[in-house]
Amino acid sequence: DITKIRSRWVLDSRSNPTVETEVYTLAGGFGRAIVPSGASTGSHEALELRDGSREFHGRGVLKAVENVNTVIAREIIGMDSRRQEDIDKKMLDIDGTPNKSRLGANAILSVSLAVAHAASSTYGVPLYFYLGGMQAYLLPVPLMNIINGGKHAGNELKIQEFMIVPVGAKTFREALKMGSETYNSLRKILKEKYGSSAINVGDEGGFAPPMKNTREALDALIAAIKDSGYSPGKDIALALDAAASEFYDDKRNVYYLDGKEYSRENLINYYKELVQEYPIVSIEDPLHEEDFEGFAIATQELKIQIVGDDLFVTNVKRISKGIASRAANALLLKVNQIGTLTESLNAARLVTMNNYSLIISHRSGESEDVTISHIAVALNAGQIKTGAPARGERTAKYNELLRIEEELGSRATYPGIGIFKHYKL
Ligand code: PGA
Ligand code: ZN
């Protein structure tokens, strides 16, 4: 049984406060979780409760912390930490709003994840095993964001994330090594071509060079892959997160990208050209977050993995709508978009049953918390997106996956290109 819950603010990677919660059980179990925070958030995400006072420029989380330490603690203490669903349900009931605005999704999620950690600790097993058991064996292919644009960088790139995907690796360890080598090749190439300020990094640890258009960034990735001695496409493929809501003008119904104006149709055609020219296996949020119909067209025409992030916001209602209209073929799962572990697992189950791919994801504002590494393995998701292979809050997740792979031993499997089942080019 849960005997004690304690919450406090700690800092995230952008120096904003966020909620950390600790859960203790009678059997000596202990769990701790820190909640992440996005910058290019979807408008349908669960509500992140911020104080709005002068402190921390309005971004304080004292109310959320207080909600955990009082209202939530009162109800949850005495419950069995293994009854994750009941505990999550209890918090949803206390909150009573559709978007968790009363208690705050940050308050609720910190407890939800800490409870899972406490339960796994009570059993004396790692979280991935507690959640996934003997069936958890698949290490995720990392989609590593090594050039940052959009809201995550102070440059003019409109596409938010330019990622490398080590599909030719045999193990996760090898994949991470390939990513690191390519990252360091890119650093050298950017410095030579654009000067030393080009190797400053953005929010997710990728470089934020003073580039203006998409092809320029993709060319740099290809050059870096080659410089490291790898073959683009065969060893290391590419992926994009357009986060297109950020460059969409809803009054005129057009997108502003690479110095031009695009209609939906023209934008899809532009992606088509890029997919022909470069080994791109996945594009996330290619269109704005309300355009289910456009997502369906893009999915059908591009014949690669199309990922719904802002489109789905890890919400089963929006995912169901997407499945019904064949919008996208993969879900980006972010636990804080929905706010409980139970709902996140339900979202994962729903997409998996409908033959969508699943990518477990960090946020641009992160911490040393490694829960998502465990969730990725527990669900055999096969893909993880957690930034560049650099900066502590990103490497924490990758390094934890190294440990998990080692612990799984001969059971550990790295899927490689096979996990991109919707990539048909
Ligand atoms: P965010 O960005 O965490 O700033 O929302 C990540 C993403 O769009 O995938
Ligand atoms: Zn995204």
TrEMBL record:
Reaction equation(s) it catalyzes: (2R)-2-phosphoglycerate = phosphoenolpyruvate + H2O
Annotated residues for binding of Mg(2+): D241, E284, D309
Family: Belongs to the enolase family.
InterPro entries referenced in this protein's UniProt entry, alphabetically: Enolase, Enolase-like_C_sf, Enolase-like_N, Enolase_C, Enolase_CS, Enolase_N
UniProt KW keywords: Cytoplasm, Glycolysis, Lyase, Magnesium, Metal-binding, Secreted
Compartments (UniProt record): Cytoplasm; Secreted; Cell surface
Cofactor needs: Mg(2+)
Residues annotated as domain Enolase C-terminal TIM barrel: 136-422
Record-annotated Enolase N-terminal domain positions: 2-131
Pathway: Carbohydrate degradation; glycolysis; pyruvate from D-glyceraldehyde 3-phosphate: step 4/5
Positions contributing to (2R)-2-phosphoglycerate binding: Q160, K334, R363, S364, K385
Organism: Infirmifilum uzonense
SMART domains the UniProt entry points to: Enolase_C (SM01192), Enolase_N (SM01193)
Gene3D superfamilies, per database record: Enolase-like C-terminal domain, Enolase-like, N-terminal domain
Described purpose of this protein according to its UniProt entry: Catalyzes the reversible conversion of 2-phosphoglycerate (2-PG) into phosphoenolpyruvate (PEP). It is essential for the degradation of carbohydrates via glycolysis.
GO MF assignments: magnesium ion binding; phosphopyruvate hydratase activity
UniProt keyword annotation of Secreted present: yes
GO cellular component: cell surface; extracellular region; phosphopyruvate hydratase complex
Example GO biological process: glycolytic process
Family annotation (PROSITE patterns): ENOLASE (PS00164)
PANTHER family the record matches: ENOLASE (PTHR11902:SF1)
Protein name as annotated: Enolase
Binding site for substrate: H152, E161, E284, D309, S361, H362, R363, S364, K385
Cofactor note: Mg(2+) is required for catalysis and for stabilizing the dimer.
